[in-house]
Request: fold
Amino acid sequence: MPSISNSDYVASIEESASIICSEIGPEVVDFVFQRYGAHSVEDIDPADLPDVFSELYAIEADLR
Reply:
């Protein structure tokens, strides 16, 4: 099974964050980032990228 690179996670986080921001506002994305001690995607610890992506993707999926 191929491993997902950090850059792939960052791109996916940015995509999900963009959709969430346009649908319900940036506060939700900011809240998720803050839970991981980050203010932006660039601040996220690489070890936390999969978890942040999972949370944002779950929120995005609920919007559909």
